[in-house]
Structure prediction request, 290 residues.
Amino acid sequence: MRSLIVEEKYHGKKLNSFLFEKFPSLKSSTLYKALRKKDIRVNDKRVSENVTISSGDEIKVYISDEFLFPIFSISFEKIYEDEQILIINKPAGILVNGDNSLTTYLSQQYPFIAPCHRLDRNTMGLVVFAKTKQAEEILLSKFKNHEIKKKYMAYVYGIPSKKQARLEAYLFKDSKKSKVYISDEFKKGYQKIITSYQVLASDEKLNTSLLDVTLETGRTHQIRAHLAHIGLPIIGDGKYGIGEINKRFQKKTQMLCSYSIQFCFSNDAEILNDLNEKKFQISCPFEKEG
Prediction:
């Protein structure tokens, strides 16, 4: 049995539309059979037709998981887990959300699972998931208020003139092209971004550097685009990097890793208070290349 709470955006929608969006692999024939057998409940009342649902309704679906989720396997490492959260070391090449994603796979194992931030498909590293709705709400608020610190490691082409810097610029997201653009000056439609880096190591012969990167703003593709903008493209980045350089180093995905997450709660975190001051860190596969 799967239990779902109807979000505000589905208020006034039909039950079928809600379930098809929540379970992309669900076939119409399977859903209609479940309705005929009254295997779906809305607020603990069995329904046999495509009813209208409201925000806050609880939908219970008594359909086997094999009909709700695609059967596929993803290899990853669990870094931490308790009753409220799960931290995964996501490999490159896998989406956090969407079809055939890490979230889809985890949904086969957990009654409730929700990613609380995102990484690009080809960015590797730590992702925090909530295992309860209350934990999700708290984590989203803590990320928004910068009470959860994330650090990244990037292997770039070039050697910065400064060993460390705090960079300010403006970013425009072109959703149609799935790409962002950086400007040093404010322009209409652009949002301010702040990216800081520290040089961990450099190789003058290869003209490469290993950077420790932190974000004060978390915009789409911010690290990749911002570093490319200042002449430090991430090696392997097919969108913002340099094709010739990527071929030279034989890298097909960006050498960018979310390697550290630290919980730094300045306000009450309720059921997550035990996480305060805890830090989780992994080794990046490319950190010795710097």
About this structure: The CA atoms of residues 62 and 193 lie 46 Å apart. The chain has a mean pLDDT of 93. The longest helix spans residues 133-144.
